[in-house]
Design brief:
Structural class: alpha+beta
Low-confidence stretches: 438-452
Radius of gyration: 43 Å
Mean pLDDT: 78
Length: 728
């Protein structure tokens, strides 16, 4: 296949962008506009003149009820996303990557970014976050006085330095021999230009994002693009040709400036034409950043490319190969096999209409009951008096009974349960209730603890599902952050990690590291998790106290993590304030110091025992003799038992042999096998005795500093024996 020409590429990208825009504008945009309208309290219901115009705010109430719970789930943990190593060699890098990404996330205002993404997913189907590396050229001016020739040479040879002003003077000075010499003195003003880059994490308004209709996700999309408005001066600052930028068409009402969603967001779409006329650099230009798979090289394999297009004709300004679209998408209710799912607002739009109708009827009924209509004989009354609604005003009448109120039955009381039923339907759909938000203490007081917990958990289930769906978006976000950091971050960065500033080099990290999400799901589950953590810590303490530091199950780092997670569940984020940082390296160092201290203490105890008074030495020797006698007694007892068992076994074998002379040797072989097993058992007992001997000797050595003659006892144990096991 031939390589695509610039014209072919321009045609392909224009067609793809317009197709994606048509797909979104045809249906998706209308659904988002309607959801936003209902969130703002605007409904499609008509109303009669003179009747109630009140509007229910179900959509807004549900969204605002769900958002705090979802934000708490993610922000309760300092590290709600954690990179996990693939092998032991990746442990340190995974820890650094986790700390670095959260540091950057908090540095750029990650709370607001996540809050906006969750809000857009609740109202407008999808929340979008863009991650990229922004490089800017920084220019700073410096002025120097009294510089020598050498200093000037060093200064002007620095990269990016441009001399703005230079003045040279001659001064006389005396050298070490008292001779006056001339010296050049320089005054300079320079401009130092250098590039400075940083990671940018920014939320994208849903109306600025477009994707092809067949896409199931951003990764498999044929094209996805970010269409926004930029000032002409900003494009020139980005390095684009001023002549090209000048010829680019601006925005119009069919693009962004007059879109319904933008008007809903900002309340207006009017561009200040006077300012544009005075300063052409402030003119708004439509810029589309598209990521499209295209076979530009003609090898039959489409690859991802980044396009920067300007104007309403989508003129290609820049094109380069790319590896990953920089967008992370957040959904609360994804649709299988489709990119756009449903928002929480869409679920309760119809309920808001129904509630609005019922609420208007109730208010109209109350108004009619309080101010009933009148039946009037206009020939018998003054109509001006009848039409006067002033409280206490009189109605002049020629005959009593000429004015009669029309009775309106009060039905509002019987209608109120309908509102409660509608509230229940919304709670069942969304899982958002007053109990789940902690706003109904009376219900909790009148309900058993078990029932209240079950009710809260039932409602929290749907919130947990939404949180789990949103967690996929956070994983994509942190994957992008890791990807951008590895490709762009300088290797001389310093970052605070575990209370210390350490150098960070993202280039050595593994871009394919796995991730885990650490979030708390609901208050009840947080309490249960805290209780489980405290029980875990107690178990860790028991293991540590029973088996020592080298137990193979629990380390100091793991115990510190347990305590840190417990504090995090309580909302305490600065764990280092209460517990010192702990890593595998720090723990290893502490263990080495503990071992040295223990060895020193043991040596001191030995020296003290050897240098003690005669009475103490006599006591130690007495204890040693006692221990040796005890071990010898146990040895003799074991030997006696072994001899008795062997004699009994010999007798049994003789009796059995006499009784089984007529039989084959099968049973005799079994008996011999049992005899061998008994011998083996006795050998095991003898080996166990050897081990007990060594342990007892070690105890005496540790208590009294005097060694037991283990070798003499072992010679007795290992003495040659005859076929029956008797010592020779």
């Amino acid at each position: 296949m031939p390589k695509m020409s610039e014209q072919d590429i321009q045609s392909a990208i224009t067609t793809a962008i317009e197709s994606a825009i048509d797909y979104v504008d045809s249906d998706i945009a209308f659904q988002r506009e309607r959801a936003q309208s209902y969130f703002d309290g605007n409904v499609d219901l008509e109303h009669e003149e003179g009747r109630s115009r009140v509007v229910s705010t179900k959509v807004r109430d549900v969204v605002r009820g769900a958002k705090p719970s979802l934000m708490r789930i993610f922000m309760a943990n300092n590290k709600f996303v954690e990179f996990t190593p693939k092998g032991p060699e990746d442990v340190a890098n995974a820890e650094q990557a986790t700390a670095y990404c959260h540091w950057v996330f908090n540095k750029v205002g990650g709370y607001n970014v996540l809050s906006n993404a969750i809000h857009d997913s609740l109202v407008k189907k999808v929340g979008l976050v863009k991650v990229w590396w922004n490089t800017e050229t920084i220019a700073k001016n410096y002025t120097y006085e009294n510089l020598s020739d050498q200093e000037v040479q060093v200064l002007v040879n620095k990269e990016g330095v441009e001399v703005v002003e230079h003045r040279q003077d001659i001064e006389m000075e005396m050298d070490e021999f008292g001779i006056d010499i001339e010296r050049n003195v320089h005054s300079m003003t320079i401009t130092h230009k250098y590039e400075e880059g940083e990671m940018v994490i920014e939320g994208i308004p849903p109306e600025e994002f477009f994707i092809d209709g067949s896409a199931k996700s951003i990764d498999d999309a044929y094209i996805c693009c970010h269409r926004s408005e930029k000032r002409a001066g900003d494009l020139i600052a980005m390095g684009f040709d001023p002549d090209v930028v000048e010829n680019l068409s601006g925005t119009d009402e069919d693009t962004l400036i007059g879109s319904v969603e933008k008007i809903q967001r900002f309340g207006q779409s009017i561009q200040d034409d006077e300012q544009v006329d005075n300063d052409p650099s402030m003119r708004l230009v439509l810029v589309t950043e598209a990521y499209m798979r295209i076979d530009a090289e003609g090898d039959g394999i489409p690859t991802l490319h980044k396009f920067v297009c300007g104007g309403t004709g989508y003129e290609v300004l820049e094109m380069e190969p790319w590896d990953k679209a920089p967008f992370a998408d957040f959904h609360v209710d994804p649709e299988p096999h489709a990119f756009y799912g449903r928002s929480l607002a869409e679920l309760v739009i119809n309920d808001q209409d129904t509630t609005t109708s019922v609420l208007r009827g109730i208010l109209d009924n109350v108004a009619l009951v309080n101010t009933p209509r009148l039946e009037v004989n206009e020939d018998m009354v003054e109509m001006d008096d009848v039409l006067n609604n002033e409280i206490g005003a009189i109605i002049r009448s020629e005959q009593i009974g000429s004015v009669n109120p029309l009775t309106v039955p009060f039905v509002a009381g019987s209608t109120l349960p309908a509102l409660q039923y509608l509230d229940m339907l919304v709670e069942e759909k969304t899982g958002i209730s007053k109990m789940s938000m902690g706003l109904n203490p009376d219900m909790l007081q009148n309900t058993s603890a078990t029932a209240a917990a079950l009710t809260a958990q039932a409602g929290a289930g749907q919130v947990e599902v939404m949180a789990r769906n949103l967690a996929e978006g956070t994983k994509k976000l942190f994957q992008l952050m890791l990807h951008v950091a590895i490709q762009n971050s300088p290797d001389d960065q310093m970052m605070r990690l575990n209370g210390e500033f350490v150098p960070v080099d993202p280039a050595v990290w593994d871009a394919g590291m796995d991730m885990s999400i650490n979030v708390g799901l609901g208050t009840g589950q947080e309490d249960a998790k805290a209780a489980a953590l405290m029980q875990t810590f107690q178990t860790q303490q028991q293991i540590w106290q029973t088996y020592g530091p080298k137990n193979g199950l629990v380390s100091m780092t793991q115990m510190r993590n347990t305590l840190a997670d417990t504090l995090a569940l309580s909302g305490v984020k600065n764990v280092d304030r209460y517990y010192a940082p702990m890593t595998a390296e720090i723990e290893q160092q502490l263990m080495a110091e503990m071992a040295q201290e223990a060895e020193a203490a043991q040596q001191a105890a030995l020296e003290q025992g050897q240098q003690g008074d005669p009475m103490a030495q006599a006591l130690i020797q007495a204890e040693q003799i006692k221990a040796q006698a005890s071990m010898q007694g146990q040895q003799m007892k074991l030997q006696g038992k072994m001899q008795g068992d062997q004699i009994k076994m010999q007798a049994d074998m003789q009796v059995k042999a006499a009784q089984m002379q007529s039989k084959q040797g099968t049973e005799l072989a079994e008996l011999q096998l049992k005899y061998r097993e008994l011998q083996s058992s006795n050998d095991l007992e003898r080996d166990q005795m050897n081990q007990d001997l060594l342990v007892e000797a070690a105890k005496i050595l540790g208590q009294y500093g005097t060694a037991v003659d283990v070798e003499r006892v072992k010679i007795m144990q290992n003495a040659p024996r005859d076929e029956m096991g008797n010592m020779i």
